[in-house]
Amino acid sequence: MSDNRHVIIFDTTLRDGEQSPGASMNLQEKLEVARALRDLRVDVIEAGFPIASPGDFEAVEAIAREIEGPIICALARCRREDIDRAAEALRPAARKRIHVFLATSAIHREFKLRMTKEEIVRWAVEGVRRAKDYCEDVEFSPEDAARTELDFLCEVVEKAIEAGATTINIPDTVGYAMPQQYGQIFRHLRQHVRGIERVVLSAHCHDDLGLAVANSLAALLEGARQVECTINGIGERAGNCALEEVVMALKVRHDFFGLTTHIDTKRLYPTSRLVSTITGLHVQRNKAIVGQNAFAHEAGIHQHGVLAHQATYEIMRPEDVGRSSSDLVLGKHSGRHALRVRLEQLGYHLSDSQLDRVFEAFKRLADKKKDIFDADLQALVEGVLHDGRPEMWKLLSFHTSAGLGIIPTAAVCVQRADGQQFRDAACGDGPIDAVFRTLMRITGIPAQVRDFQIRSVSQGQDAQGEATVEVEHQGRLYRGRATSTDIIEAGALAFLSVLNQIAWWQQAGCAAQSRTESIPQP
Ligand code: KIV
Ligand code: ZN
Predict the structure, then answer these.
(1) What residue numbers bound the domain in which 403 lies?
(2) Distance 113 CA to ligand 2 centre (A)
(3) Which residues have any ligand 1 atom within 6 Å of their CB?
(4) What's the CA-to-centroid distance between 92 and ligand 2, angstroms?
(5) 435: domain CATH number?
(6) Cβ–Cβ under 8 Å, residues 37 and 230
(7) Which of the two residues, 498 and 464, has the higher pLDDT score?
(8) 494 in Cβ contact with 435 (< 8 Å)
(9) What is the pTM of this model?
(10) Ligand that comes closest to the CA of residue 240
(11) Cα(173) to centroid of ligand 2, in Å?
C-alpha cells in the first residue's frame, strides 16, 4: 500500500447497483454511467458480471475498451467458465481486476452450495489462482462474510492471500452487521491472518438495517482501505453503501478519520442525477447529500442562522457536492451564454450542438414557464441528451376529456418515421390511461403498464411535471421518462418513448436487455 491514508473508492453501481429491481441499464446507458464515474474519479469501476448474460459481457467489454483511468473490474464466481468469461470481457482494459467470490457462511454452505468447509477453501484457492493466470490484480470476496464463523473466515482469507489475492473484500451480504461488530471482523483478520499486511482490505455493506455507510466507516477505522459503494446507494433490496455519503463523511470529518479519497466531490450531484435519470430510481427527498431537501432550510430559526453565518446549520456547502446555492436562475430573456455558464456550474459540459438543442428546448420552456430553476434545467438537459435514438413515432397533438361522471377519452395524432400521420381515439380509466390505450392502438404494440409516476420537477404552479413509466412487453421491462408543464403530455411522451424503444428493438432485431433476467447464483 503506497499511501496508507488513501481510501480506494470501488464503485459497483453497474454491477451490484444494477441488481436493484427495475434498475437495469442498456449498453449505452452503462457507458454513460461509466464515463460519469471516471469523471468523478472513482478508483475502480465494477462494470458487471460477464457470465450473467451476453448484455453484461458486452457492457464490461465496451467499458474496458473505452474507459481509461480507473481500474475496470469484472465479477466471477469461483468457477472456471465464469473467470474465463470475465477475463475475456476485460481483455481491452488498460488496468483490470477480476473479482471472484464464494459464500463462506454456514447457512450458505449448507443450503445454497451444499459444500463442506474443505471444499469451500479448495474452490476459493482454485478460483483465485485461475484469475491470477489472467491478471495480477485479483479481489476475493467470501460472500456473507459478516455471518461467517471468524475462525473459518480467517482460514479462507489466509488461503486466498497465499493463492495470490491482492484485495480481500468482506461482504455484509444481507446487511446484518452492527458497526462495532463489523469493525471487529477487520481487527480480528488483521490480528490473526498471515500475510494480511500484503493486501488491501475492503468493506462491502448492504443497507437492510440502514447501516451500510456506518458499517463501512467502522471498517475504515479498523484498517480497511477500500469501500465498495454505489451512486445513490442503489442495489439489491435496500441497496448498498451510498458513495456520496461515505465520501462526504470522510471529507467533512477529515479531522476524525484522517483519510482521503480521489473523488471530485463537485461531481457527486450531477452523477447522482444521471444515475437516477437512467435507472428511473428516484432519490428520496431527504436523502443525505443528493436529496432535494438535503440543503433546504425550512424552519425560520434555521434560515436566520444560515443567513447570519452559513456554518450555523450547514456542515458542508451545496457547492462542495456540485449543487448551486441559489436556485432561481434563468428566464425568458436569458441568452445562450448565460445558459452555458449555468449548465457548467451544474456540472454539464456540453458540445456546441448539444447546447443548441438544449437552448432550443429552454426557449420553448421559457415561453410556458416564467422562472426556470436548476431542476428544470437538469430535466431539460437530461431529456435532450438521452433522446439519442431515432424515433419511430412522434407525438403531433392530442386532446383528452375527463371529469366527474363522464367517460375519460383521448384523441391522439402521431407521425410515423416515414412521414405518415395516424389518428385514433380510445376511452380509459382516466385521461392518461385513455392516451396510453390510443397510442397502443395506433402503434399496434400491446404493453402492460407496471408503474407510472408523476412528480413535480421544481416549484410553483407552473412547475414542470416529470412522468416516468415502466412497461412490460413480451417479458421485458422498458422505461420511459419525459417532462412537460402539462402532465398529460409528459405521460404521453414518456409512454411514447417506451413504444419507440420497443419498436426500435423490434426493428433492429435485437433483444433489449431484460430487466427481469436474473443473474445466476453459484
Ligand atoms: O453482497 C455481496 O456479497 C456481493 C458479493 C458478490 C461481493 O455483492
Ligand atoms: Zn453486494
Answers:
(1) 393-508
(2) 18
(3) 16, 101, 141, 143, 169, 171, 173, 204, 206
(4) 26
(5) 3.30.160.270
(6) no
(7) 498
(8) no
(9) 0.81
(10) 2
(11) 5
Q: Which residues of 34-53 are buried (b: 16+ CB within 10 A; e: fewer)?
A: bebbbebebbbbbbbbbbbb
Residue to probe by mutation, ligand 1, list 141, 172, 206, most atoms within 8 Å of CB: 141
261 within some domain:
yes
pLDDT of 213-263, one tens digit each?
A: 999 999 999 999 999 999 999 998 999 999 999 999 999 999 999 999 999
Q: How many CA atoms lie within 13 A of 231 on its CB side?
A: 32
Q: What is the pLDDT of residues 304-363, one digit of tens each?
A: 676 777 777 789 999 999 987 655 567 788 888 888 888 887 767 788 888 998 999 899
Q: Which three cell numbers stand for residue 235?
A: 442495489
Atom of ligand 1 at shortest range from CA of 15: 8
pLDDT, tens digit, for every residue of 91-139? 999 999 999 999 999 999 999 999 999 999 999 999 999 999 999 999 9
Q: Are residues 312 and 362 in the same domain?
A: yes
Q: In angstroms, what is the span from residue 38 Cα to ligand 1's centroid?
A: 22
C-alpha cell at 185: 471482523
Domain-embedded: residue 287: no
Of the bound ligands, which one is closest to the alpha carbon of residue 522?
1
Distance CA 392, CA 372 (A): 31
